[in-house]
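Bench notes, afternoon.
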Amino acid sequence: MRYTNILLLAIAEVVYGTPPAMTGADAIQTSNLKCMPLEGSTVPWNRDRPAFGNDIAFHVGVHVAVEFDVALVGSGTLGTAPGWGKLLIACGCTETVVAVTSVKYKPNSASTDSVAIKFYLDGQLHALSGCKGTFSIKTDSQGIPFLHFKFIGIWSDPTSEANPTGLTGWNAFQQPEPVTFDNTAAINLHSYDAVLRTFNFEQGNVLEYFDNPGEQFVDIVDRESKASITVIAPVLSSKNYFTAAKANTLGNLKLEHGTVSNKLVFFEAADNRVQLLQPKYGEYSGRATLEGNLNFVPTTALDDEWELRLAAA
């Protein structure tokens, strides 16, 4: 088998754990796709015997996991959800579509949505149902911006099955633009436009697989959104992030990427939602950098600590 011959399909489930039929129209344009086909744990029997040696162990809590990247770019049509939108919904997000205007994704603690996934390895199929996941955002200067997804789902016996053809689902995924001066605005952190080196956000969903007599399902049981950031260190007279961190100040964050209005991406957290933790100096090509972690804190309205938005502005 050729490992380079891999493919992922995904479709929203109407009934949890019941995968609808999938075709090439459900193909996801991935990078760095990986499948962990037999996750869980083992329980040894450990029978008593009058000699050394191992005993048989039993696999329990068996499930399947997949991880992959998807280019972070808009759908190409304002007010139209991107091909990766159904994946965010299965990661516990709400999707709000305003026709011809915007698509917004925000956290949703009450989400029950799931997807079914098929992973093909050169004609070998590993199918997952009842999948829920978590995502992260990777934006490094001079790199391609990616959404990184991790899903876990209910096991199905692997089978040999020819890869589907007619991968029209890929048409919903647009060509990304690298993170550069021309393509990406300065990141605004605590009301200061900083020169960005890296920004990596983690939605931080806690995923659990439950396998008990009478129940078998995947659930999101918590969320702790956070990020790491590196910027060119500003002089203290322009922005003193150290005093802001020491005072446990909550502020804003805004990242805007893209040059074409129907492909723009905004990641935002409004005032009083983002806390800078333990900033420190670093170095990049002889220049001082500021490195730190970000803590995303919802308001009393809840489920509002960040927003991923596709719009013209």
